[in-house]
Amino acid sequence: TALADPGPHWRDGLAVSLWTFVPPSPQRPEPTEFGMALARMHIATADFPGELPVLATLRAQIGDALAALERERVLEPGVLAALRERHAEVLAGLDGVSLPDSVLHGDAHPGNLLWSAAGWLWTDLEETCRGPHAFDLAVLVRGQDADAAATALAAYADVTGEPLPEPGELAWYDWARALEGAVWVLGMAHQYPARYAEWAPTLLANVLAARRPSPGPGQGRTMGG
After folding, report:
1. What pTM was estimated for this model as a whole?
2. Where are the alpha helices (DSSP H) in the chain?
3. Contact indicator for 173, 217 with CB cutoff of 8 Å
4. Residue 86 contacts residue 62 (beta carbons within 8 Å)
5. Pick from 48, 117, 162, 209: CA 20 to 30 A from residue 193's CA?
6. What whole-number distance in Å separates Cα of residue 51 and Cα of residue 32?
7. What does the alpha-carbon distance between residue 130 and residue 225 come to, in Å, rounded to a whole number?
């Protein structure tokens, strides 16, 4: 906001920032629009000098969620062990790989775009981190049909002028993201069962059944860095 010091302001260990209010909108972006929006965000943050964790989405957020699920005794021990084994596979895929340190949204699905008088605005930025653009692109096209995904990726490449990651790399990040999403939904189902409990078991089953794609991170063409 330009009406006051936007912050961040620190109080009792919490950071608060002040923003201009944008009303909610039911409008949703077309594939070309969300591909272009992500490209513009990546370009705008290319020179950001601040420190950010590397792929915290796949590291701390999954680890913290699994610790919370264990603490609250949400899952059977065998299921929890299987999820931890899957997380170890994700971490092993990242270990020792030189990853581009571009700024990522971290949760760049089309539902996090808000229409405003100034155009599309990205929201829900608490998962922002550094890493390869391929992660954000995998999140962007996750759940889209083939035509929508191809259109969004083409629009992204048109704006950035950079080659797209290899399909295998996108598939690997999609596989890793699925684990992050599943453990998050399991936690939400524990806290808000009316909203999340119905679809948590399906996500859990899909994650446990999914096999690790190949190649992994850094083994195809990447963007950014």
Report:
1. 0.91
2. 31-44, 60-71, 77-94, 133-141, 146-160, 167-191, 193-196, 200-209
3. yes
4. no
5. 209
6. 31
7. 10
